[in-house]
User: Fold this.
Amino acid sequence: MVDTAPDSLEAVPERFNMARHCIGPAAHRGPDRPALIVAHADPANDGDPAGRADTARRLTFGELDAAVRAVAAGLRSAGVRRGDRVVIRLGNTSAYPLAFFGAIAAGAVAVPTSTQLTTAELDFVVRDSAAAVIIQRQDDTLEPSTGIPVVREEHLADWLGADVASETPESAYADTGANDPAFLVYTSGTTDRPKGVLHAQRSIWGRRPMYAHWLGLGADDVMLHAGAFNWTYTLGVGLSDPWACGACAVVYDGPRDPTVWPRLIDRYGATIFAAVPGVYRQWLHDWRPGPGALASLRHGVVAGEALAPALWQAWREATGVPLYEALGMSEISTFVSSGPTTPTRPGSPGRVQPGRRVTVLPVDGGTESVPTGEVGVLAVDRDEPGLMLGYWRRPEEEAASRRGPWFVTSDLVHLDDDGYVHYHGRNDDVMTAQGYRISPVEVEKVLAGHPGIADVAVTEVEVRDGVRVVAAFVVPRGGPLDPQDVRRYAGAHLAAYKCPRVVTVVDSLPRTPNGKIRRRDLAPGR
Assistant:
């Protein structure tokens, strides 16, 4: 067991609102300090050859505070009550964080979603969360079929134009308790439907060990995150963490040229860059650094998927900039990392952050830690303030995640003699692609509806060193089956990140004597 003296950390206040914690203090101390920059154009192609034009949307902490309070007031005027779920389906614009933090400021429960979701996927989230309202962009033609009230982006603009000067921050931010719900995220598990992970207002308090020990984050930093606003990695590392420290957050919503990131770093003086491994890999493939490139960048951080040692080495050789990895999950964010206080060890995401209590338990059950060097399942103290409140309306899965005082993950790891964690994959079939967790069962259920498919199995495969993608193995139903047709069918029924990148037609699927698919026996060309 790794026990890094959690009792030494200050207890979370009993009355606590996450939005106020992230925004209020910085707005009070420095209302004119930059809080958010949403860059709309690539600095190399923004209509100004000299690179002087800048069409980015900017908010100071004072403006951010007023905007979030205005959205909170608008939601209350629209009938949203404390504890109501507010589904957010917006593009990668400044409206997204205002809606997310505005809902939390009002005491409601923000439910971030992706615009990639299909109607069926969106309907499921709306029904399962029992949402009171959905916030959508103005031109979004996809509406849930459940009859839920829809708030369009123009309504947000109307709310932002309202006068909230009469409302003090104390009255605008709901007087929530630390254990009251703040946001609900949907993530894939081992079933055919995503499960909701419900987080408390205190979740941001539980992220504080990350600041010194992974992110190296302070008030003078500029954090550039490569992700979209709907992703918890972006909402956390890209927004919540910088704002809680009084730092500036930068997000890009323009064309996705992989080499845009160094130009954005140089344009906005980013000191920290955050992304998944694939972004770093694509960046390095085509990047040709010029004089003074990355002069402001102190280090990069990476999470979402395991970082291949070869990619870490290539990054260091190309840039000379440190790259710090972290291991986490939707249920607790990141709690194992390298960073300014923990030297990087290639092949390991790092060590347990100070202030955490973590152990490795036997795969088959029990609450006694396995010896150093032995593979087991990673487990976290259930009193950890960053841990979720629980799985939304999933009592069986909630019970399965508990062993005595521990929350048990599905990550297989071992600890070495120096306390570094070494990852051995998952103890279930859940896949990871582009940083998203994806259920193979969910994808299989959709593909099984294709009229030309008699049987299907889905897993992830490694297509080259450190690059893994979702793959489907399909048995045709009495005739030829075109893999491209299967991919098109998937694209019509699944969010893009869930769609198989590889489709292989096979005669049969490997199964156990009980008929269960042996996904680990699947391989392209078998």
Remarks:
- The chain is about 25% helix and 25% strand.
- The two ends are 42 Å apart (CA to CA).
- Residues 32 and 60 are 5 Å apart (CA to CA).
